[in-house]
Design brief:
The complex is a heterodimer of chains A (133) and B (59).
Chain A lengths: L1 H8 L4 H12 L3 H4 L4 H20 L12 H11 L3 H8 L10 H28 L5
Chain B lengths: L5 H20 L3 H30 L1
Helix pairs in contact in B: 1-2
The chains are: A mainly alpha (133), B mainly alpha (59).
Amino acid sequence: MAATETTADYPVNPMGVVAPIAGWLVPGLGHLIQRRWVRGLLLMISVLAMFFIGLGMEGKLYAANTGDILEMLGFVGDLGSGGLYFFSHGMGWGQGAVNLAMADYGTKFMIVAGLLNVISAVDAHQIAIGKKS
Amino acid sequence: MIELSHFSAALVFAIFASVVFGVTQKSEPREMVRYGFKCFTWFTLGLIGGGWLMWLIRH
């Protein structure tokens, strides 16, 4: 049976669903709940540091539906930060200082923090389903 | 406000990106460390190489 073979090749379990969502919402949490303490802390520190350094540089957090394709892509990158994005957006942070080159670097830092967080969440999923030790 | 030079900002970027790449792309701790250092080296070499390339174009 093709369906059975597919299930066996790609085993899905509750942790395989919970870990990536937790990791997306809080960077590193997907690893921490699977007792990968060092990996989780390293990922958490890296993503949090990149995001908050970006905010500290007065980078911009993109909002949805601005109508500009580049801003939409920026929004998708920012959204990768999960809870960090929602919290910061809710607090009104990340308005961006358009007259500063450093602020543009900060914007990129926050987008990349989001993308790295997505990679971390996928890694948490891979560990949960046993594809990675 | 945090103020970094272009070079130091790129190095900070390289450090954190390399840590995430190292942790997520390899399975064994020893391989993770090695891959992280490798990524950091390539980021830094690319940064310096890109800088010199722009200098050559400018001159």
